[in-house]
């Protein structure tokens, strides 16, 4: 096996999807703990507090107690290189999560045992399903009273329409949650630690006949375990690795991220079963990760991560070849050749300079202002990876600058924040960029925008919400703003000078589409 193949084979790049509060931050932290990237896990709160210190605009997250940004963390575990793509849980940022999922090779679906499959999990699950990536399920908070494990498997099948195969089974529930039974090896792992979760939890292993193990489990719990296992063997789905690979069967693990119970067992199985980076579709056909030419795509852009330096980072998922710091690459959409002199990788909570990276890795590269989400970079070829679809905006607002002296900062701020993909910017055909109309998927995006414009660009704005809920890109012969205009709609231009028409509702759109057969209305912008 060549060096690059070895490096590819040991990589696992995945994202955690869940409903807010299911324990994603806690689980991420515990994975880092077991990966040796953290020596002592603090409480989730203190970790969150530390993160906020990194970037001042995250103050907003702190106030609201939500996680807005996605971060990328890398650590080594048993010879594997693990890349965790963290994603915001709040639904208003689901587009950000969606893009992050485009950069992941598999997903971990985290479920709160007491709540089961929640709304946000459902949405994100469907994105993974569409992409056909393997989905691993971790049922969390087993240290609390929750739903019965068999009912939870039933819920996966009924609500998400996915088969499941429990890799392990909980021994006891709630405060009696004492260990797990691993089905493949028929081994029991009992947790003997205090369960505070700050350090790796010691375990004792044995099998169902081992007196030391049996003696440590109360009789009722033991009987329940045996009954459950019998039922699973009889009525459960069969394990099938091909179905797992296609995302049609999810391996299920039980545990408690808070007390660390089951985290190690999960991680050990996960690294064996989760896929290494594989080939990707492009405009020039399949691109194999081991092909020598470096290539990747931008899935996230973030400005001002460090308030002391007004820089912008583009997060690139490497798809093929080897990245070397200082290498020259081509930005395919513009044909510009740039040197990747500054590049960052994110280990635990620190960003460090990276000299070499492989397919599956995420690097943060300095953005001279040319990158947009979805852009492909290569060493010399002109192919592009599949575009990252945008969510159609559903909320629209006109933004006004309060102090005309700040016009330059205002235009720059809006431009940078739209390039990050948080909001989409449109303008009136006859006016410049003074009072742009912004489109967003969730109302929080306007709040973040307002907050960041004030704190990062020193610009005061007012936001005038508009009564539209649907945007369509209009294409056709000889279209003009005038020909598209009606009593009820608003005709705007996007940054590529495409016409965008806003409608009040679906009904208004249908009515107009019926009358204007010469116009094709698209849900997404036409390709650049
Ligand atoms: P999130 O990133 O998915 O939003 O969740 P996060 O890790 O912040 O966890 C949400 C809450 O759930 C936290 O409580 C956390 O301690 C708790 N939690 C996470 N994993 C477990 C688990 O395995 N068992 C139990 N019992 N609790 C768990 P918190 O910060 O104290 O806040 P709150 O409970 O007041 O909301």
Structure notes:
It holds the Pfam family GTP_EFTU. It comes from Desulforamulus ferrireducens. Keywords: Cytoplasm, GTP-binding, Nucleotide-binding, Protein biosynthesis. This is Peptide chain release factor 3. Residues 9-278 form the Tr-type G domain. The protein is α+β, with helices and mostly antiparallel strands and 528 residues long. It is 28% helix and 29% strand. The chain has 15 helices and 31 strands. The strands form 7 sheets. It has an 8-stranded antiparallel sheet with strand order 18-17-23-14-15-22-19-20. Strand 7 (168-171) and strand 8 (179-182) form a beta hairpin. Helix 5 (94-102) packs parallel to helix 6 (119-131) and helix 12 crosses helix 13. The longest helix has 17 residues, at 219-235. It is globular. The two termini are 39 Å apart. Residues 43-70 have low confidence and may be disordered. Bound molecules: guanosine-5',3'-tetraphosphate (G4P). Guanosine-5',3'-tetraphosphate (G4P) binds at residues 18, 20-26, 44-45, 89, 140-141, 143-144, 256-258.
